[in-house]
Amino acid sequence: xxxxxxxxxxxxxxxxxxxxxxxxxxxxxxxxxxxxxxxxxxxxxxxxxxxxxxxxxxxxxxxxxxxxxxxxxxxxxxxxxxxxxxxxxxxxxxxxxxxxxxxxxxxxxxxxxxxxxxxxxxxxxxxxxxxxxxxxxxxxxxxxxxxxxxxxxxxxxxxxxxxxxxxxxxxxxxxxxxxxxxxxxxxxxxxxxxxxxxxxxxxxxxxxxxxxxxxxxxxxxxxxxxxxxxxxxxxxxxxxxxxxxxxxxxxxxxxxxxxxxxxxxxxxxxxxxxxxxxxxxxxxxxxxxxxxxxxxxxxxxxxxxxxxxxxxxxxxxxxxxxxxxxxxxxxxxxxxxxxxxxxxxxxxxxxxxxxxxxxxxxxxxxxxxxxxxxxxxxxxxxxxxxxxxxxxxxxxxxxxxxxxxxxxxxxxxxxxxxxxxxxxxxxxxxxxxxxxxxxxxxxxxxxxxxxxxxxxxxxxxxxxxxxxxxx
Length: 471
Hints:
Radius of gyration: 28 Å
């Protein structure tokens, strides 16, 4: 059975011995070098599966080796060993293409996690060769797919975006995903996870703005039973739940400053301490983050910590807005309409004038807004083709869409007394449910007759029954 082979580059005999012993217990063979010159020679002589290098070497530094390997041996993941607390060098190495880093004194649990993750990127794993330390069932298809089936679009900017995602998936560097609301930042984060070595483990998305501030520390790091009033059992935090996988921090700009400090420490130390816990717990988590806000401006204004910004923004990946890729709108629209199809005999299509109107619209809400527009048009159009008039795009895109009152509409408006504790959407939904149920009862549940009574198409009624869970 073929074994993995690691290159270790360090001029300290004690560190070399520690690394060699640790990898030997993982059934990994080693070749050692004390300087860059010897490391370059060994790279020419052997087919390595990973590389561990110290940052400071007699004839250069680890970043020189990282850059050399990125140019000549890009398929070999390389991790750097840095002095404790020297995050600037670690970040520089990650930007240069290092797979990951580990700080001195070397925590063996962290090291083993790093090595196991790196080996999942090995060409031997991709070829299907089984070894003792390889528990993940990775197939070539896991890494060959560029995500086109999920991140749709054939425009040049989307082809480049998918290529970047595929490259970033091999790294463990923290990625900051920037982009407007509705542009697909979570989808991009999922693709980075699915195309990387952590695909077999959990992908945990969390909306940082949706967690009450007094519960944040417990949600992120967990707590021990009895650590505060209401802590009746031990609770696992989000970092522990994502252990071995990926934690996606959406709307990270919403984190209060006190949580930013704790998050920074967790990322740097690769460990967390639950509330009430007596010791740190090592975690093996890749952190991806996103926000639609200008994070750099928040840093300048004092609303976001600069040190955390640099830590999560090792590499920034911008997700293009829909108006930057209008050529993709027909493909996206077809996919959305297929997804919205409720099994009707004829699939609704977009007319040429509708496509033209959509391509001229600025889409402040991006793909999410496109979905909403098509969902509404599909519900209300009278035929199997959506025309430009069915889209009801606002003329003034800076203002909310205005709804005209139709005097011939059988539904009349009147003052209503809204319970302030009921969200408007729920309130209107209840009114719609009542009207549909009354129509169905009046027509003895003849849907065609009920649709006619309500003044909507049969397709619209069928859609509303499904949407309102009345089927």
